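Hi all, long-time lurker, first post. I run a small reading group and we've been trying to get comfortable going from sequence to structure in the token notation. Rather than ask abstract questions, I figured I'd post a concrete chain and ask someone more experienced to write out its structure so we can walk through it together at our next meeting. Sequence below, copied exactly:
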Amino acid sequence: MSHRATPALGAFLRSRRARLTPQDAGLSKYGERRRVPGLRREELAQLAGVSVDYYVRFEQGRAANVSDTVVDAVAAALRLDRDEYTHLRDLVRATGPARPIPAPAPQGAEARQVRPGVRRLLDSMADTPACVTNWRTDILAWNPLYAALFTDFGALPPEQRNKLWMVFCHQEARSRFVDWEEKSRCLASCLRMGMGRHPGDPAYVELIAQLSAGSEDFRRIWADQDVSDKRHGHFALRHPAVGRFTLGYEYLHLPDDQDRFLITYTAEPGSPSEAALRSIARQAGHRPQAGAPIS
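-- Answer (accepted) --
Happy to help. Here is the structure in token form:
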């Protein structure tokens, strides 16, 4: 059976090699002058215990039936963390034997449909900002308090209701993040993780093209090839009504669709951040339901 070469695998492996030096890997230097940053292919092959020719074919996505042992050895040599290792396995899987093309995924309004029960859940969370997204970071549904934190999503075209678009290309939403660089890198690395799990999905390709055309910062950060599956944490916001405060976030898989998440945002009980969130909620109380059906 034929195998599929993928540039994503080679780009990712080259980026991980570039960040390691021979000294980091416990190797003696091959001369003082080096034309490439980080480990050379032959050095990585030595560390992984495979031939240089085989590693070259592996990096190019041309090695058939790559064993788990080889993947594990390469991951260990590159000192990949858990998320990077998962991403590598996803990319290797994408180079395997070509499979029958599945039925096209829903597009447009159909792809953005959210069950009525989930919408009611969002609307019932009056004191908790919340939204539903997918791996592509599309904002599929939201409640009024989530909109009050960032912007009126209902006024945006559907294709711009996307976390990456908001962070990189929407100035109002972008200005809300105190540590914009950290938040943007976190979202971009999660998007790359999603792409590894959905190889060849045209929706991802289209989004990357739009973000690349619209943001130099995105092009810079995307080139670093970072991946992450961080689904909880904290970040600081600045809001024109209350100033700076901190929220925690949690991603929860929807039980009937593992590609969709309910994201909730909460503040520490009794903290100034909780008071700030309550103040925003009071001001947003008169707003229409921003999570109305998306057309």
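A couple of things your group might point at:
The beta strands are 130-134, 139-142, 232-239, 243-254, 257-266.
The mean pLDDT is 87.
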